[in-house]
Amino acid sequence: MTTDLNLTELELRAIGAELNLADGHPRQDLTKSQCDVVAQFPDLFWFSRQQIFSEIERKAQTAFLTALGQHMAPVQAGRVYSVYSSSVATMVLANALRGHRVAMLHPTFDNIHAILSKVVPVMSMSESEIAEIRFSDEVDKQATCLFITTPNNPTGWVLTQSALEGLCCYCLRKGKVLCLDVSFRGFDIRAQFDHYAVLERTGVEYVLVEDTGKLWPLQELKLGFLAVSEGFREKVHHCLSDVLLTVSPFLLQLVEVFSLDGAAGGFERLHALIAENRKMIVDALDGFEDIKVPDCDARISVCRLQLPTSLQAEKAYKFLTSRGVHVLPCRQFYWERPEDGARLIRIALARNKKVVAEFLSQFSMVLPNIRETRASGR
Amino acid sequence: MTTDLNLTELELRAIGAELNLADGHPRQDLTKSQCDVVAQFPDLFWFSRQQIFSEIERKAQTAFLTALGQHMAPVQAGRVYSVYSSSVATMVLANALRGHRVAMLHPTFDNIHAILSKVVPVMSMSESEIAEIRFSDEVDKQATCLFITTPNNPTGWVLTQSALEGLCCYCLRKGKVLCLDVSFRGFDIRAQFDHYAVLERTGVEYVLVEDTGKLWPLQELKLGFLAVSEGFREKVHHCLSDVLLTVSPFLLQLVEVFSLDGAAGGFERLHALIAENRKMIVDALDGFEDIKVPDCDARISVCRLQLPTSLQAEKAYKFLTSRGVHVLPCRQFYWERPEDGARLIRIALARNKKVVAEFLSQFSMVLPNIRETRASGR
User: Which residue of A has its CA nearest to B9?
Assistant: First the structure.
């Protein structure tokens, strides 16, 4: 049963499949200038052996964060920690949150919920509740920490600057910690206002999970970062020391060079690819009246499709996978109310255009079959 | 206070220090053939984009495990999982052990205890209890899992084949799970008998933590592996999916090529370097009657020194660090009885010879000062 598996387990089935549009990892071709960096791998390796680690780390963090508008990130203050990945960062954060009661965004990628709920009690809040800063009594009275994914995966919803400002004031007033997972920020310039300027100005206690792993097709050569307010420095530092001494200076250098390339036009090219792939899907589905793209304004590297009332995502998933085409059914994103995701599938967009085109061709062929099966009651 | 910090926090202080003999990570120069591999980084990157991931993974795991004598490791059976590092592997294992009561080796590196004790109740057992398979009533009656580091860090103690065989029978009889952390196996051929042949033959439930990160000076480009018996496959697979989709195929290829180089003479050269560094220390300390090397027969890449009864390791540590020389005081290895480590320091040996020589020179100079301070009662 696909409903027994988590999203990563479903994504793992797609590794090596003919057509993998399941995971949100970047699998498009490298650009010309990215290829040039790969040619410099040996130089970067030898260079990072000669340099002082803390300087390499500071330069990489600065390059990455400023390329995405985060000029006030506390790099100089030593409050940005490098981690193997955003998921390992989330595991460390979960341990640092021991004793808290966490309200977290619903829906969102299921491993965040899986990691947090193993360590702390978790309750849910919606995108609109966060946008309007109007929470349920449970969240308002019981939560000591809010955990928000922005841009959200899979919806593409973004926390605006004014909402973040309001949220900071709310958290300060109520004595709550604010945690943001901004792993998909690189795709959406609306999420690239300086979050740290807002956070530091208001003085709220915060932890941010940053991720380099969604942007560049580097075969999982990536890092995560944990950026924290002063009040969380010691806890996060200590919890992180259970897991690692330092990350690789070679990987830090990759992050620096790819960030500089991103700032010099690379991110624009990436945004164009994602936008073109999304448009290809929207245009193609124009012909199917009962299939909708619910998040028209999303910019992140995944896209949801809403299937007709009568068609369960699991059935579509099964049909597609039997033909070597992998996407994600969306129940698991809705960790509190799976039924809300029962008619949604998620398609990865960080792919070459021909992969998306091939998906659309297969999807159009498969669709009548699914409908037919339904009609015949099988 | 150094006693408030864990070992990794102490190691972190040594990153960038003049003389870092604190952490057990490999920091020696690369050999000629290792340098040749670095020159091939771009080729390895492009090659791994073209290949099927599962084949790259299987080849890397096979090359690494067979180079270290582990021919019966369940690679083909799909029961070896790749992880970012051995510590992340331990975090995943801890989650897979939920509901267990774990007896673990004392002393051993403190992050293993920190990770496990956050998730499961932990009790202690000693090297001699394990070697003789003669446990305390508490371990015998209450533990549902034994967790053993072999070779052990910091002592270099090794679980022999006959002890492993006896242990497997004991665990089978008592219905206990056997977990081994074999991160330092690569340094000691006495730990390179085929553990998996024993484990699989007896049919005991097991989980092994393997680590590529101690052997090659690759600036933290490394992987961990979790190898499991059939009964643990599903649990570990599921817990791992909270943390990662796949590791990097580029890193898997590095592991493959460095393993082949190790099997073709690289490991012998590494063993020679560690042995020479250890001998340099033993010889130099011959002149100091009251300083002992307690683990004369150890082969791993760290070496303990036992200080005189009157000299606390923390005092020696403080004196040395004030001169830019970093080692580890050993209290924290003794997670149950810190006092047992109060007169021990640990010195890293995976360093260039001149680093060890420089340490010895500094240590000889510092030693009289420490003694003097003691004499004057300050």
Answer: A241
